[in-house]
Every structure is written in structure tokens, then in C-alpha cells.
């Protein structure tokens, strides 16, 4: 893994153009294209914050963690959607429940409860 970054372009504290590599390579890149060289931070580029005045690049872990938590908070919905019983089964169960036979509705509700138990909503 490359340990240095040549920050060549940035806007609103975000990188728009960069080159990573060895310190020597990055210094040569900056000599040709401008910018500054700094140590490559952890995390992904979407969470790197440029401070051009100090010529630093930092990793915003709190923003990264927040985005991961937001994604995880709704991921259960997609997972549940794949395993819920078919809505057509509900329609059939409802029809039979109206005719006095609740066995299909009970089975449908049990299947939904199992999905909710197996894939609980995060708190």
C-alpha cells in the first residue's frame, strides 16, 4: 500500500485530484503539477478532509462511522424483503380467513414473525 499522497486539486476541503505513491514519487508529481505531499490517511477518499493552509489531509472517522451506521440502520429492510412470504400468499390467506378458515392466515403471520425475529430492526 502506498503511504503518501500528492494532493494536486481540492475544493470544499475535498480532494478532486491526487496521486498516491512513495514519498519520492509524490514529491516529483507535486514538482510538476503543484499541490502538496502528505502522509496518506486511513479510510476511504470520501472521508478525507483537506486543509490546504496547513497542507494536511486527515481522515474523518466520525463521518465514516455515521455513514456506516446509517446504512446499517436500513439494511435490514432489504434483507427482510428478500425472505418475507409473498404478498399473494397473504391475499389467499385473507380470502380463506373471510370464509372462516384462519389456518393460512396464522401460518402467514407466523412466517412474518419469523422473518422479524431472524432479522431484527437495529436499535
Summarize the structure in short.
The chain folds into 2 domains: 56 residues; 45 residues. The chain has 4 helices and 5 strands, in the order ββαβββααα. Helix 3 runs antiparallel to helix 4.
The share of residues in extended strands comes to 15-25%
Shape: rod-shaped
Radius of gyration: 26 Å
The CA-CA distance between the termini, in Å, is: 37 Å
Number of strands: 5
Structural class: alpha+beta
Please tell me the total number of domains: 2
- For the residues shown, what is the average pLDDT? 93
Strand count, sense and barrel status of the largest sheet are: 3 strands, antiparallel
Low-confidence stretches: none
Q: Going across the major beta sheet, what is the strand order?
A: 2-1-3
- Number of continuous helical runs: 4
> Approximately how much helix is present in the residues?
40-55%
| Elements, N to C (H/E) | EEHEEEHHH
Amino acid at each position: 500500500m502506498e503511504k503518501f499522497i500528492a494532493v494536486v486539486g481540492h475544493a470544499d476541503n475535498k480532494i478532486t485530484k491526487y496521486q498516491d505513491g512513495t514519498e519520492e514519487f509524490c514529491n516529483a508529481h507535486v514538482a510538476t503539477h503543484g499541490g502538496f505531499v502528505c502522509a496518506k490517511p486511513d479510510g476511504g477518499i470520501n472521508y478525507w478532509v483537506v486543509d490546504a493552509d496547513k497542507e494536511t489531509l486527515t481522515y474523518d472517522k466520525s463521518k465514516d462511522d455515521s455513514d456506516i451506521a446509517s446504512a446499517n440502520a436500513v439494511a435490514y429492510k432489504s434483507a427482510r424483503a428478500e425472505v418475507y412470504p409473498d404478498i399473494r400468499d397473504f391475499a389467499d390467506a385473507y380470502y380463506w380467513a373471510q370464509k372462516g378458515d384462519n389456518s393460512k392466515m396464522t401460518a402467514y403471520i407466523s412466517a412474518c414473525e419469523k422473518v422479524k425475529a431472524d432479522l431484527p430492526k437495529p436499535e
